[in-house]
Amino acid sequence: MVGVNAGPVHRTVVFPGPVGPAMTLSPQRRGPGDPCYQTVDGAIWKTSLQPSGPVTARIVKTGRETVACDAWGAGAAEFIEHLPAFLGFDDDTSGFAPDEPTIAAAHRRVPHLRIGRTGRVLEALIPAVLEQRVTGKDAFRAWRLLVTKFGSPAPGPAPARMRVPPPAEVWCRIPSWEFHLANVDPGRARTIVLCAARANSIERLTARPSAQARTALQSLPGVGEWTTAETAQRAWGDPDALSVGDYHLSNMVGSTLLGRRIDDDAMLELLEPLRPHRQRAVRLLEVSGLARNPRFGARLAIPDLRSL
């Protein structure tokens, strides 16, 4: 086994066409202060807790079609083994030929968009639970505080303040007052502890087709359609997992494609012809710069639970 600070283990992935790792991996970042994801001088630094142990990875685009990675820690070899999937090498775009003019234009603008997958379900699920019904700013702060306090130091020459996410047994033992201090309400805290207690079963969902895995994940109390989709996008690279119930998504889709706000039902009807690539279409709009999302009314308020 590779030692905690041994390494680096190196791998270069050569793609069959242009590649953009920053575009592929950006959904993995939970805010600018994410202790598990940082960008320094063009290099992406990512930590993870693999079954074999913690890992810090440094990912760099080295050419039009090449990406190199150095990894440190007990989980380095395992992370490197799955690096192509993480970078979206085997993302299947077959059948994706959008007729809708704006989505087709977005596809022409960024034809090299790839959807990667981590294979680490709990690492995608817990921050998604933290993001339920609150602003991104509040959720990102909670993730940063909890991982910084209960995670472990990042192995190797990681940037300052980077941490490895806690294992399931640590999430289970976090006291209720620590969630409270991170402004996480009791409902979300209970869901996190419940998911962590069933971590082994949850991780095994990776072996199922994504649609089946999403159904199984939604059977957990506190895990709904939105949380499941956010998890499936990152852990399984699901190109169809649409985040229904998102505070802004339907408005963005409607404003971009129709020039007006719409609700979730209208968004589902509008994107139905793109199945099984509905989330791919949304990502294309976002990364191409063609998305429009005019703001109406006040921002969602952040309740301060710590004063209660």
UniProtKB/TrEMBL annotation:
<dbReference type="InterPro" id="IPR003265">
    <property type="entry name" value="HhH-GPD_domain"/>
</dbReference>
<dbReference type="InterPro" id="IPR051912">
    <property type="entry name" value="Alkylbase_DNA_Glycosylase/TA"/>
</dbReference>
<dbReference type="GO" id="GO:0006285">
    <property type="term" value="P:base-excision repair, AP site formation"/>
</dbReference>
<dbReference type="GO" id="GO:0005737">
    <property type="term" value="C:cytoplasm"/>
</dbReference>
<dbReference type="GO" id="GO:0032993">
    <property type="term" value="C:protein-DNA complex"/>
</dbReference>
<dbReference type="GO" id="GO:0043916">
    <property type="term" value="F:DNA-7-methylguanine glycosylase activity"/>
</dbReference>
<dbReference type="GO" id="GO:0032131">
    <property type="term" value="F:alkylated DNA binding"/>
</dbReference>
<dbReference type="GO" id="GO:0006307">
    <property type="term" value="P:DNA alkylation repair"/>
</dbReference>
<keyword id="KW-0234">DNA repair</keyword>
<protein>
    <recommendedName>
        <fullName>DNA-3-methyladenine glycosylase II</fullName>
        <ecNumber>3.2.2.21</ecNumber>
    </recommendedName>
</protein>
<dbReference type="InterPro" id="IPR011257">
    <property type="entry name" value="DNA_glycosylase"/>
</dbReference>
<keyword id="KW-0227">DNA damage</keyword>
<dbReference type="GO" id="GO:0008725">
    <property type="term" value="F:DNA-3-methyladenine glycosylase activity"/>
</dbReference>
